[in-house]
Specification:
Layout lengths: L1 H17 L4 H16 L2 H4 L3 E12 L2 E14 L10 E7 L7 E5 L2 E6 L2 E4 L2 H13 L1 H7 L7 E10 L2 E9 L5 E7 L5 E9 L6 E13 L5 E10 L2 E13 L22
Length: 266
């Protein structure tokens, strides 16, 4: 009963604070509070990030793969409009000896002891699409983007917690719906839809963020990230550690000198 009363009070306060505001005004207010909760200027000025932990892949709700993973992310200025503002290296195995995936700009490679194999265009497009829709990436890298609109859609209950729902729409009409914890102001869940390029089917992509911790300078980052497609889990990352603003060597994000370039998979 106490929990119900607390939830009811939160909803009343939310409604009162939003009275007289337009959807966009209220949406901007929720977004500003989320950026502050994530660390404000320290979050937005983050240069790089290193996550270490366990990465799971799923098929039909069953674990189809498990890896010890270290993910290196460096935020960069894009070389062309529409490109990502980051480059990423995913290293796998104990002491990172089981290979890596390198994603830089519009190219990507899977690196093994045999050499570097270019990633399929479908994989690169999916990575780019997932990143562009990621609310943490949006709040860090895309806030000043022309044409970005934030619309408050009301209060919802997410995992038994009161949340504020905001639709984020960009100039290309890409929409991601984000649910922010009404008390912590941190993102809990996001949803977006896209068409399968091969079949034309409409897919629902959901990401859940949990276990936020201070990773330095007041910057908050989730240690548990889960993704699902059309109601079935596809990926989960449990981080044991997250570090930011490290002195990362540039060679992490380029192919090793002299590495053989293999033919793409058919």
């Amino acid at each position: 009963m106490k929990g119900y009363m607390r939830f009811a009070i939160v909803l009343v306060l939310a409604g009162a604070s939003a009275f007289g505001q337009s959807k966009q005004e209220r949406g901007k207010q929720v977004i500003a509070a989320a950026v502050d909760a994530l660390g404000g200027p320290h979050f937005r000025a983050m240069r790089n990030r290193v996550e270490s932990g366990r990465a799971y892949s799923f098929y039909n709700e069953r674990i189809s793969g498990l890896s010890i993973a270290t993910i290196y992310v460096e935020y960069v200025q894009p070389s062309a409009p529409g490109e990502l503002h980051l480059r990423e290296r995913q290293s796998f195995g104990e002491k990172e000896k089981s290979g890596a995936v390198l994603l830089t700009g519009d190219t990507g490679y899977q690196i093994t002891f045999r050499g570097a194999r270019p990633l399929p265009r479908e994989t690169l497009d999916r990575f780019k699409d997932t990143t562009f829709h990621n609310v943490l990436y949006i709040l860090k890298e895309r806030l000043e983007e022309p044409g970005l609109i934030f619309e408050y859609q009301g209060s919802e209950t997410v995992d038994n917690m009161p949340a504020d729902q905001v639709d984020i729409t960009d100039a290309d009409n890409r929409v991601v719906t984000v649910f922010f914890d009404h008390l912590t102001r941190l993102p809990l869940r996001q949803v977006y839809y896209h068409r399968d390029p091969a079949t034309g089917d409409r897919n629902e992509e959901v990401t859940i963020f949990a276990k936020f911790r201070d990773v330095g300078g007041g910057v908050m980052w989730p240690f548990d990230v889960q993704r699902s497609r059309n109601g079935e889990r596809t990926y989960q990352m449990y981080a044991d550690s997250v570090e930011i603003n490290q002195n990362l060597p540039g060679k992490l994000f380029v192919l090793p000198q002299g590495v053989p370039i293999l033919k793409p998979d058919k």
